[in-house]
Amino acid sequence: MAQRPDQSIILSYQECKFCGSSDGFVYYDSHGYCYHCNEVWFGKDYDKALEDMNDMHWTFRDDKTRVPDPDRYFGFVYIITNKKNHRKYIGCKQYWQMRHRKRYKPSNWKVYTSSSKELCTEIDKIGKRNFKFEIIQEYETKRGLHYYEQYYQMQNHVLTSVLEGTDQREYYNKNVGGIRFYVPLETYQDPSYRKVMSTNGRKGGAPCQGPYKITFKTGKSVRVKNLRAWADRKGYGYQQLYKIANKYTEKDGYKRHKHKDIIGVERVANDMGQ
Fold first, then answer.
1. Which residues lie closer than 8 Å to 181 by C-beta, 6 or more apart?
2. What is the CATH number of the domain that holds 29?
3. Which entry of 40, 52, 195, 203 is 20 to 30 Å from 263 by CA?
């Protein structure tokens, strides 16, 4: 391990090329140093990396004269396009790292190339000049930023869209919103899956069809034919009642025993209702 040079001006926090730490490598104006693996980087290769890092690659998709405004905005939604094969990636990036809900330090947004390992590998392989890095829009709040990231991802069908005339996926995205939606294992274009979905659709919301027995804290109980219709009419959340009825467990992420003044919901055999 090389001796660590004296520290100077901090330019950016980046992923370490030596140990893979996501933000432990610090670019100084004279050298680079990783606080996780203690690796030091300097010399001609470092100077070239520093030159590339300082080359901010973002432009606005609809206004090339506009410049990013990190002082006003929290972050931006972006699209990266591979000029060679026309594949794309939609994501979002914060201008600032936050601590205790306050701006702590600038993020690496100027040189950020997405969280997609597949895309970043291709950028390293063929160079940034073969990609377009475009900002779709800036947003003032974290909530707005993440909402519109998912909005543009869903609007462009990033999980299912394919390049015209091929079976290759158009987008590098592997999920929507980071964790919530993933590439489906089946598609509506599959005839067998389409038949199943059509059959289920004709059942008219079968999971809510009863009859159900609903028990209140007072000990009183009522029977209803349709759980959702009754819940909407009485001001209860039908999804919460449905969870009680199906005894969601901690293993599945839920364990709901009651909802408002209701302590029990169960499907019953006879066909009484209201």
1. 154, 159, 175
2. 2.20.25
3. 203
Q: Facing residues of 221 across strands?
A: 215
Total domain count, the chain? 3
Same domain, 133 and 169: yes
Q: Specify the long-range contacts of residues 1-7, CB closer than 8 Å, at least 24 apart.
A: 1/38, 1/39, 1/40, 2/39, 2/40, 2/42, 3/40, 4/33, 4/38, 4/40, 5/30, 5/31, 5/33, 5/40, 5/42, 7/33
> Which of 46, 151, 45, 58 lies closest to 107, judged by CA?
58
d(CA 268, CA 274): 14
Q: Which CATH number fits the domain that encloses residue 149?
A: 3.40.1440.10
The whole-number pLDDT of residue 1 equals: 43
Question: Which pair of tokens denotes residue 200?
Answer: 């289920």
Residues 43 and 80 in one domain: no
Residue burial 67-106, b: 16+ Cβ < 10 Å; e: rest: ebebeebbbbbbbbbbeeeebbbbbbbbbbeeeeeeeeeb
How far is the C-alpha of 81 from the C-alpha of 113, rounded, in Å?
11
Retrieve residue 229's tokens.
């219709």
Q: What is the pTM of this model?
A: 0.51
Contact 90, 74 (CB under 8 A): no
- Whether residues 256 and 176 share a domain: the answer is no
Residue 114 has pLDDT above 90, yes or no: yes
Question: Is residue 190, in this structure, part of any structural domain at all?
Answer: no
What does the pLDDT read at residue 5? Answer: 46
| Residue-range definition of the domain harbouring residue 226 | 206-267
Distance CA 92, CA 97 (A): 14
Query: How much is the average pLDDT of 29-44?
Result: 77
